[in-house]
Design goal:
2 copies of one chain form a homodimer. Helices cover 17% and strands 41% of the residues of chain A. Chain A has 373 residues and is an alpha+beta fold. In chain A, the strands form 3 sheets. A 12-stranded antiparallel beta sheet of chain A has the order 14-11-12-13-25-24-23-18-21-20-19-22. The first copy, chain A, has an 8-stranded antiparallel beta sheet with strand order 6-2-3-4-17-16-15-10. In chain A, a hairpin with a 3-residue loop joins strand 15 and strand 16. The model of chain A has no long low-confidence stretch (mean pLDDT 94). Chains A and B meet through helix 2, strand 9, helix 5 and strand 21 of A and helix 2, strand 9, helix 5 and strand 21 of B. Strand 21 of chain A pairs antiparallel with strand 9 of chain B.
Chain lengths: 373, 373
């Protein structure tokens, strides 16, 4: 195999597909990037068998072929090459010469025989949105995916996000037992209904690759076991998680005894300050004492104590309620509104943070607290 | 004690003196910042007994006093405070109220009784230079200070830099057994000769604080056991290292058999690329084959091999010589010249990198190598 391409094109491609290459794997072939020029394009592939990414780069193919190159080494080499044309020349023993002018680096590649190719996904059933909307909606929901590592007892379905299409809108939901995040996105067209669970890990990597332009589209296609994302010259395929997701629509959103309207930034800054007093591993709650036009935030830990009054508008009863400050912050930080509304029933019932049109709904469970003096 | 100051002033002061506060210490009082308003100024001090920093901040003193506050917590709190006036109010039990408007954070401080104050240094004997020159000359020599941690067998004197004043110029030297860095700086005035060894750790912290302005001066004073640096409202005192430094002037600089002139950036880029092929802990040398107008760089490791030709000008004999690429890079990266001169005698003798006026001299010892095919 032999081809010539620009360093920057190769580097971009390598950076994209590397997101699907595991750092360590029991199958060393998965630690490689597959380069394939047999189909008259230069394609790069990374695949950890759960998530696979393929991208096509510009260049001139001189001889067709396939090689698998250790991803970390190859990407380090490409990054450090002069910003010029790079020639990649692979002989029948997969000895790979990477050269530019009077510079030659030689590494040993592998045959691509054992490499797992991306599955083919039928595109009959696909939806389109802007990359910017796609990236935003992921960022706004991914933090409450349960982070269950290998062997964790977390329920499988909570390690993913629920992707739903209802005609002309899409809904993403995630939950981890302490909070729920729900975002709704208006689509440009009507589509068939869909309901799948996509691994949080896959979405996390994908959102790093999508460049986020409002003018650039992403096409999402569904099959029984996979979801495919296509944009630019890149195709990403992720396995789906099997099982039944928690039934979000069972929750009752409309009742409340206390409604608070607060400036989001003031609220975030105050909780953020309270976190200084909470040492790692210590589960001190932040206590909210909601009165007529004032919210008193207080926290009391081994490090010290804090009291801060914030101006609010209140409807309904006074209430004292406590939260894990981190869970509150995660939700508040991905809302763009200047003012937000909190809906509460009592100190034991979930707090809903949502706007009127319900394009976002964040649910945070309260925690027990002892009154701070 | 009680005083009011601007958040940003307090934060700047805390950031400066924190550089001398150890993360962990057997003496918990050393993990504190001392705040002292008894001398009609608000002074902050950090001191790990080797390095001490004192800075004075603007503000209004309402009641004189002294308190020691745990540095990490206090600096986190100040950083997260609103950008406004902060009031610090300490009662006789060192209960410390840090407040701004309707926000109050309370932490418990300590008495300053056990705190080690900075020693007084006589300023009869002091030199002055721009902060920019001072910071540059440190950066250009500090990397070859021996990094001997606690209990390391490294010679004490090599953990510091030799600071020398000879009339109207200063010289800084450091060495670690593999390389030597020497920088000379012209001073504005004539001074008394000085020769002291300053701990590399102190210089490292100081260079982070000095803001580096060409118009702002730094004054350096010497005593038998200490060196003091003063600039702006800040005073830094470091202990000196006792002992005899390696006699640099014994080295012979002028003989050479091979002189090479090379574009510094090309040389750096090539060595940098070669490093990709060297895994952590692997001590592969980079081999330089010096011929009439070409320098061939080569390296051969378990990862792969590299060959690159660089254009040079050469005087004297052809030579094949090898170096630890990291040691070469460290020196080359702090030289500003576009072209540099290397002076060599043979493959076993040190290589000198220096300019004509010898304002810098970097010495790198070669390493053994087996010829690369």
């Amino acid at each position: 195999m032999k081809f010539i391409c620009r360093k920057q094109d190769l580097l971009n491609g390598v950076n994209i597909v590397s997101k699907a290459v595991p750092n360590r794997s029991t199958m060393s072939i998965l630690e490689c990037i597959l380069i394939n020029t047999t189909r008259d394009v230069i394609s790069l592939t990374g695949n950890d068998t759960e998530l696979g990414i393929e991208t096509i780069i510009d260049g001139e193919i001189i001889e067709r072929g396939i090689v698998a190159l250790e991803a970390k080494t190859f990407s380090d080499i490409v990054r450090k090459f002069p910003d010029d044309d790079i020639t990649i020349d692979v002989d029948q023993n997969y000895k790979t010469l990477i050269s530019c002018g009077k510079l030659v680096i030689t590494i040993i590649g592998k045959s691509g025989e054992e490499y797992t190719y991306l599955p083919d996904i039928d595109k009959n059933n696909s939806i389109i949105m802007s990359q910017m909307n796609f990236r935003d909606i992921i960022k706004q929901t991914i933090f409450s995916v349960a982070d269950g590592g290998e062997g964790s007892s977390v329920q499988q379905t909570t390690k993913g996000e629920l992707f739903e299409v209802f005609g002309d809108y899409m809904r993403l939901s995630s939950l981890d037992g302490h909070r729920i995040s729900i975002r709704r996105l208006q689509l440009r067209d009507e589509y068939e209904n869909e309901k799948v669970i996509v691994p949080g890990k896959s979405l996390n990597e994908i959102s790093k690759i999508v460049n986020g332009g409002a003018e650039d589209d992403i096409e999402i296609s569904f099959s029984n076991n996979h979801i495919m994302f296509e944009f630019g010259n890149t195709k990403i395929v992720s396995r789906l998680i099997e099982g039944e997701f928690f039934d979000i629509d069972k929750m009752s959103y409309s009742n409340y005894e206390t409604k608070v309207t607060v400036n989001r930034k003031d609220f975030v800054d105050s909780i953020d300050r309270a976190c200084i007093l909470v040492k790692e591993g210590d589960k001190k709650p932040i206590v909210l004492n909601i009165m007529d036009d004032t919210l008193t935030m207080s926290i009391n830990s081994i490090v010290g104590s804090m009291n801060e009054d914030i101006s609010i508008e209140k409807l309904g009863k006074n209430l004292m309620i406590a939260f894990n400050p981190k869970f509150m912050l995660d939700a508040l930080r991905v809302i763009e509104d200047e003012y937000i509304d909190l809906y509460m029933v009592n100190a034991k019932a979930p707090c809903f943070i949502k706007n009127e049109e319900e394009s976002y709904i964040y649910v945070v469970l309260p925690v027990n607290f002892t009154t701070v003096q």
